[in-house]
Amino acid sequence: MHGGQYQVAVTKQHHHSYSLTDSSEVDPDDEKADSPPPLTPLQKLTTDMCKDEKTIKDLIIGRRVGFYKVRGEIGCGTFSRVKLAFHALTKDKVALKVLDKTRLDSQAQRLLSKEISSMECLQHPNVVCLYEVMEKPSRLYLVLEYAGGGDLHNRLSTQGKLSENACKITFAQILSAIKYMHNINVIHRDLKAENVLFTSSGCIKVADFGFSTQVSNRNDALDTFCGSPPYAAPELFRDECYLGASVDVWAMGVLLFFMVTGTMPFRAETMGKLRRCVIECEYTLPPWVPGPCQRLIRGILKEAPADRYAVDQMLGCDWLLPVQFPWTLVPPEPASPLQGLLDSERRDLEEEVEEEVRGLLEELGFTAEHLQNNQTKNSRSPVTGVYRILLHRAQKKRGCDSPPVIRGMVRDPKREGLRAYKGLRHTSKLCVLS
Ligand code: ADE
């Protein structure tokens, strides 16, 4: 699923004439019908959006956007705010990222285009899913999968370092997401604890693709400094061109250190001192960190990008050996004798899911014509939004969204000591190297 480049454009807003392209819309004023059939939920909603005073007022004041009812703020960034919202038909919770177009300079617009096109081609259980994109005259809205368990930075700040098993489960999921992204040449460029979210079931979702980019070749060098300084690789501080995958790998090393110890590997009072620490790769691993984990961190946090572990080396390391992924995360190699069987099982499952979604869409009032007129790959369509939300719900119901487990693990060990990391969230920056 590859998305095209996104253009920010000003369009006219029409609250009073909301319709989807289907000739079977019911006109409730049609006097010829003796006893018109009851309105479907979709017909009721689109009618309310055109005629109901309260709904129209909510649309005008921003308490509703498209098919979504908007609630309170759950996050904010440099150019955006994230709000909790509900789909008016499916009732599912979503995260609504709201961007003020009037505040976006040309560079921010370019980054936004990349964020959308990266997210449009990503579909992985550990990556926040983009359901829909909506555009109004001054605002742009990204409708995202909601991850209700908070972010990793908050968790480490409030509960201290994670237990070793929790670290393995969390890190394995981040690794799975990054392996998938790098395989399709998407580089995140802003991996940090603040951008690692938990769902309420403990699944990890890598979020915020605002600095991401898709390279045409994994050996393409990049030259834009992106991200947060404490997570930035030495080559970024040296103002060199860099390979995207290697800077994501470095940031994963910083993340792992943070999860395991509750402290950041590179800390300094000034940017100059931080730069020196990172460039000299100067960090101290506490001796109590288990040997296999120490070896993994040391394999990642190497000054020279070429010496750093590759993602596959990380996945194959001793420390992660007891992690059992659900089969959806790491499918076997294509040549594996199991592949044929799994392919047919997966096809059956996909067909079952598709059928369930089609049934639910029909119950809501979406017709075959709606689906035909609104390609489900077009993120700008409200039909796509509903389709993707229902598809995701059906996949989750079948366990596609469950975290990996540790072989032989009975329960989580007691959580350990707190570290003073409250209020020290890391802000991300961008500058083009000259
Ligand atoms: N904050 C930012 N993005 C979010 C998301 N997708 N879910 C929950 N909270 C968020």
TrEMBL record:
It is an enzyme of class 2 (transferase). Gene3D superfamilies: Transferase(Phosphotransferase) domain 1. One of its GO terms (cellular component) is cytoplasm. The keyword Chloroplast does not apply. It comes from Cyclopterus lumpus. GO terms for molecular function: ATP binding; tau-protein kinase activity. This is non-specific serine/threonine protein kinase. One of its GO terms (biological process) is intracellular signal transduction. InterPro entries: Kinase-like_dom_sf, Prot_kinase_dom, Protein_kinase_ATP_BS, Ser/Thr_kinase_AS. The keyword Transferase applies. It catalyses: L-threonyl-[protein] + ATP = O-phospho-L-threonyl-[protein] + ADP + H(+); L-seryl-[protein] + ATP = O-phospho-L-seryl-[protein] + ADP + H(+). Keywords: ATP-binding, Kinase, Nucleotide-binding, Serine/threonine-protein kinase, Transferase. Residues 10-41 are annotated as: Disordered. Belongs to the protein kinase superfamily. Its EC number is 2.7.11.1. ATP binds at residue 97. Residues 68-320 form the Protein kinase domain. It comes from the Eukaryota.
